[in-house]
Design goal:
It is a single chain. The protein is mainly alpha-helical and 167 residues long. The protein has ten helices and no strands. It has helices at residues 2-15, 22-34, 38-51, 56-68, 72-85, 90-102, 106-119, 124-136, 140-152, 158-165. α2 (22-34) runs parallel beside α4 and α5 (72-85) packs antiparallel against α6.
Length: 167
């Protein structure tokens, strides 16, 4: 209940005095995401993007909302736009890899996780996810090496995956 009240206050503050601004729509989209109103969030992020089409965060967050609705192609398009605006946006690369994996585009997912690792060499999540995708795409040895690296970096669950897939 406190969370809903907080979100309602956040929404009212967001629209106070500048209801037509990109920031107001962006903040409203964030609040709706917290409430799991993904369709409403997408509508607000879209309005924010119409006002400011150079906001990589708005594309990224709209991609998250689309992903939650299992619109993986739409999520990929938004993550791609966020990356075009900010080529070093590693979270967008990672999430795009996740969406590609859901569509069984393993080659594309591996490329995205590899880019994340190039940007953030200690990304245990990227090593872990790339490892699992490599194993799914018949690259077991390389995938197991990635899982081992994820484990070395402290990834919870990597050792379980190693036991399951690499023994």
């Amino acid at each position: 209940m406190k969370k809903i009240l907080f979100v309602m206050i956040l929404l009212s503050i967001s629209f106070a005095g500048y209801s037509q601004s990109a920031d107001a729509y962006y903040n409203s989209g964030n609040a709706k995401c917290l409430l799991k109103d993904y369709k409403g969030a997408i509508a607000d992020y879209t309005k924010a993007i119409e006002i400011n089409n150079k906001d990589s965060e708005a594309y990224y967050n709209r991609g998250i909302a689309k992903y939650e609705l299992q619109d993986y192609k739409g999520a990929i398009a938004d993550y791609t736009k966020a990356i075009e605006i900010d080529p070093e946006y590693s979270d967008a690369c990672y999430n795009r890899g996740n969406a590609k994996s859901k569509l069984q585009d393993y080659k594309g997912a591996i490329a995205d996780y590899t880019k994340v690792i190039a940007l953030e060499p200690n990304s245990e999540d990227a090593y872990y996810s790339r490892g699992l995708v490599k194993i799914k795409s018949d690259q077991k040895d390389s995938g197991c090496l990635d899982l081992s690296k994820a484990s070395d970096l402290g990834m919870a669950g990597a050792n379980e995956a190693i036991q399951k897939y690499c023994q």
